[in-house]
């Protein structure tokens, strides 16, 4: 039986839309922009499965959750590619090429493929820990995804020798030791209170601008209407000036 290790306390350490299965499983699945695939991946034996929509913070959360569980050795990228972000290609490029000195994912084609909170060391750990990246980008067939998961499980090499690595993400770290069901994001209150004053000021500005636009439209319409009326009266006056002398001349013989 493959050797297993305990993941970091409170794993998964980064919040997200994922579904969690057996933490001792060697397979993790990213379903990109698709929905309805995650539970099927868990049922097939994956440790964690969830979408990833952005090529920066989204990928950082994937890396953080994977390297904090040394049992995860395979990554399956499936589901529909996220247009514009091209998250699947960026994640695959991260695994294959790593990041540059500026934090940019080498070879990534997404809009903003930069790792701001995950440096070279965590990325290197991610590349070392994942022994195989299975490319099923744009595949939504649950049967094919299930088959890929079971194939990876059959090749389970066991947990990485190194212990779990935990990285803190801005706006995405779960606090260790908190009660289950409670989630706190560093730097952001758990209950966001609306700024009523700012909203009121914004509404007043919008109302003022809408009023100006309405006035301008009304003036333009009025000018246009008066112009048309003036032209009609002018035309009638011109006809009268020309027509009356002609008519008198015709009547007088």
From TrEMBL:
Named cofactor requirement(s): 5-hydroxybenzimidazolylcob(I)amide
Swiss-Prot/TrEMBL catalytic activity: 5-methyl-5,6,7,8-tetrahydromethanopterin + coenzyme M + 2 Na(+)(in) = 5,6,7,8-tetrahydromethanopterin + methyl-coenzyme M + 2 Na(+)(out)
Single GO biological process annotation from the record: methylation
Single GO MF annotation: tetrahydromethanopterin S-methyltransferase activity
The protein's annotated pathway: One-carbon metabolism; methanogenesis from CO(2); methyl-coenzyme M from 5,10-methylene-5,6,7,8-tetrahydromethanopterin: step 2/2
Transmembrane segments: 231-251
Cellular component, GO annotation: plasma membrane
Localization per Swiss-Prot or TrEMBL: Cell membrane
Function, in words: Part of a complex that catalyzes the formation of methyl-coenzyme M and tetrahydromethanopterin from coenzyme M and methyl-tetrahydromethanopterin. This is an energy-conserving, sodium-ion translocating step.
Protein's UniProt name: Tetrahydromethanopterin S-methyltransferase subunit A
């Amino acid at each position: 039986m493959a050797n297993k290790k305990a993941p970091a306390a409170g794993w998964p350490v980064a919040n997200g839309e994922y579904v969690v299965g057996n933490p001792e499983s060697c397979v993790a699945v990213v379903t990109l922009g698709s929905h309805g695939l995650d539970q099927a991946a868990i049922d097939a034996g994956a440790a964690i499965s969830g979408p990833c929509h952005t090529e920066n913070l989204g990928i950082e959360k994937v890396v953080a959750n994977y390297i904090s569980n040394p049992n995860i050795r395979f990554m399956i990228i499936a589901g529909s590619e996220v247009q514009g972000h091209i998250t699947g290609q960026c994640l695959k490029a991260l695994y294959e090429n790593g990041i540059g000195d500026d934090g940019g994912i080498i070879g990534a084609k997404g809009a903003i493929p930069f790792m701001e909170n995950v440096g070279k060391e965590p990325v290197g750990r991610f590349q070392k820990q994942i022994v195989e990246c299975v490319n099923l980008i744009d595949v939504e067939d649950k049967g094919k995804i299930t088959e890929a998961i079971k194939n990876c499980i059959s090749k389970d090499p066991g947990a990485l020798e190194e212990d779990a690595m935990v990285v803190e993400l801005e706006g995405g770290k779960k606090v260790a030791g908190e009660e289950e069901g409670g989630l706190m994001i560093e730097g952001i209150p758990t209950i966001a209170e609306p700024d009523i004053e700012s909203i009121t000021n914004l509404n007043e500005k919008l109302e003022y601008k809408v009023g100006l636009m309405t006035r301008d439209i009304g003036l333009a319409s009025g000018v246009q209407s008066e112009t048309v009326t003036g032209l009609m009266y002018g035309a009638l006056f011109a006809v009268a000036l020309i027509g009356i002398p002609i008519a008198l001349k015709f009547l007088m013989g």
